[in-house]
Design goal:
mainly alpha, Multidrug-efflux Transporter Regulator, Chain: A, Domain 2, 3 strands
Length: about 90
Amino acid sequence: MSSNTKARAAFAAPSPHKSPRRNEPERLLFTRKQTAYALGGVSMRIIKELEQSGELDQVRLTKKPTAQVFHRAAQVRALAEAEEARDDR
């Protein structure tokens, strides 16, 4: 494994498809970075376009406009599965 690959692996978002560890609750929300990873490594621009089009709901844990944006895990998984089904055709 090259040092560049190791560096990328160290900073990669955790896979949203991994099964939860023992006694760890299933993840309900993904960050934008985790969402991008789950959707095949798409860019932040694509994530923001999906938000603007209404395909991804923006979830903020506070009412501040600068609060971090999350996405519902079920919605992200559904988009990923729909993309896989489209690719299988």
